[in-house]
Specification:
About 70% of the residues lie in helices and about 0% in strands. By secondary structure, it is mainly α.
Length: about 450
């Protein structure tokens, strides 16, 4: 069907839920390793405790994508999944910081990440559903803007509660600091409220022929058949998607290393302690929240600049140089002694993050059939979670052997991985970009 252009504020409303989703992700990324260490986790075992997060995405997103492609009701196609995920994720955010033991915190990470994924995958498909091709880059950029703003606030919450409101950021051994507990409570409310805003303020288009859609859904329904179809679509993915998978692998390996080891790296390398009950450790852990806020804030600022740069050059060029900047920023942690200078390092990471959240999806959307947008966006998540699962399985071994037990070396490894991702962008065809001579028809397979 012909998709009429949407106004900026319509795009704003349809993307606003990502503000809440990022509250969940940012609180998770900045604080879960801190929670694990507080509850007694060894530094070499932290990656395997994180494996729940990518594993749930591997299972949940393609299934939700398949189901949402075949859903139509009073709330439309994608919005029911926004709402279900928001309810579950908000509940998990309330419970996680009250975990009395390590295994419970690891289990709540599983629930939290699965719930976030239920909400997040249909948001990606919604942009492709509602926006014409020439507005998709802007649509994903607005999502990146909200992701950045949400992450700035959420990542900084423990620091703000401590340094602005005077909430304690230390606690007895084995207990989560009050500043973290309050932050997760605020995050639960923000997650639910922002998603409900999008559900209420966004209208979805019905299928072109609703009767035919319902008949086809009935004929192709069933979980086993759905899994078979997902696997078949995976085998027949467009060449653009297959090449982007390589870029995504190295990009998300780097990000995962950053998320799980920045707290340990900063507290030990910069603040000089590994004791989770010490004042210095908790000051360092709070500063990690500020650093995560900084890279997300920078990402929010440049989110609207990237589409303009892509129009003057190409989406591939913007993504390649953004990944180079992120890799150099991440590796530079090893050479910085003053915590304030780490903010400059995070500017490079923020540029890469803004591009990772928009450019691959803008490139991919033009190579996908509209009838399978949801399932392919879900399958594309494989290439986000597989590198994270790989990292969770291998980084602990690296930490005990190649990296000498020093978390800072994991960040250097992540930086190198992101630079490799930038080089791999050269191989990606982008037939939908008017600034690039197509290497293939948008419908070609490989």
């Amino acid at each position: 069907m012909h998709k009429p252009p949407l106004s900026f504020w319509q795009i704003w409303n349809m993307s606003f839920g990502f503000l809440g989703i990022q509250f969940g992700f940012a609180l998770q990324n900045a604080n879960v390793s801190r929670i694990f260490e507080t509850l007694g986790a060894d530094i070499a075992n932290i990656p395997i405790l994180w494996i729940a997060a990518p594993a749930t995405g591997l299972l949940v997103q393609p299934v939700v994508g398949y189901l949402s492609d075949r859903t139509w009701g009073r709330l439309g196609r994608r919005r029911p999944y926004f709402l279900i995920g928001a309810i579950l994720a908000s509940s998990a955010l309330l419970i996680m910081p009250h975990s009395p033991v390590l295994w419970m915190a690891a289990g709540m990470l599983w629930v939290l990440d699965a719930s976030i994924n239920i909400s997040m995958e249909p948001f990606r498909a919604l942009v492709a559903d509602l926006l014409p091709s020439d507005q998709r880059t802007l649509g994903f950029a607005v999502q990146s803007f909200f992701i950045g703003i949400g992450a700035v606030v959420a990542s900084a919450l423990p620091w703000l509660f401590t340094h602005v409101l005077g909430v304690p950021n230390t606690a007895p051994a084995g207990e989560i600091p009050p500043s973290v507990i309050y932050s997760f409570t605020v995050g639960a409310g923000a997650f639910f409220g922002a998603v409900v805003w999008t559900v209420v303020r966004t209208k979805e288009y019905p299928p072109d022929n609703l009767d035919s859609f319902l008949a086809e859904r009935k004929a192709t329904g069933g979980f086993v058949r759905g899994v078979r179809e997902v696997l078949n679509d995976l085998r027949q993915m467009p060449k653009t998607m297959a090449r982007l998978a390589i870029v995504q692998f190295f990009s998300w390996f780097a990000l995962f290393a950053m998320w799980i080891y920045t707290t340990a790296a900063v507290t030990s390398h910069i603040f000089g302690t590994t004791d989770p009950t010490s004042v210095a450790y908790n000051e360092g852990a709070d500063w990690v929240g500020v650093l995560f806020a900084a890279y997300n804030g920078f990402a929010a600022v440049v989110a609207f600049l990237l589409p303009l740069l892509a129009k003057r050059t190409s989406r591939k060029t913007v993504h390649m140089f953004s990944l180079f900047a992120g890799g150099l920023g991440l590796a530079s942690f090893a050479f910085v002694g003053d915590p304030l200078w780490l903010l400059a390092s995070m500017a490079g990471v923020g540029l890469a993050w803004a591009s990772i959240l928009s450019m691959p999806y803008a490139i991919l959307a033009g190579a996908l059939p509209s009838s399978k947008m949801g399932v392919y966006m879900g399958i594309f998540n494989f290439f986000i979670v597989i590198p994270q699962i790989f990292a969770a399985g291998i980084l602990g071994f690296f930490m005990r052997t190649l990296l000498g037990g020093h978390a800072i070396n994991a960040l250097v490894l992540g930086g190198a991985s992101m630079v490799i991702a930038g080089i791999m962008v050269i191989l990606v065809p982008d037939a939908d970009d008017p600034n690039v001579r197509p290497d293939e028809p948008a419908s070609s397979r490989g």
